[in-house]
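quick one, 169 residues, struct below
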Amino acid sequence: MGCDENSTNEQNACSECIEVYTSDWSEAPFYYNLVTNEEDVTDWHISLQKIEVPLGDNTYPMPSIIMNSNVFISIYNELSFNDITTTPDEIEWSAESLTSYKNEYEVLHYPGTCEISSHNHPPGDHKIQVSNYNYLIKETSTNNIYKLHFEVYVSGIVMFKLSQLNIED
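---
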């Protein structure tokens, strides 16, 4: 993803998807359990947390999406989010939380701190951008696989949509 790309909502709705709105990260961390589809601070898979980001001689509190160690993650952009209906073949899973700040597949990107020379940001761009990746998440205790897409970041709140892929009929 180039830093200057913005997330765009797809035109077709995902009928089986759940939309999740986090709380404001600046007030308290948000923790979400994929299996129960509920906010859960003790048994969580996805979190929106405050991290301290160094910028020059100062550090600033910024939001970051963190995955717990109880999930594996993969990026899959061969199909649009809505067209992913089953777990794709030959997925490479990673145990690393590559979704947090300054990682390969970060969800929330800060152009004002970007040090990647190939990215083209307007001077003074401090608007937080949301990646356009399709994330596949494998929950390790159940082996449930979920597709996630982070849609928007507005005033400290993130909205993402998700759906379980390996539901048995």
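Residues 18-164 form one domain.
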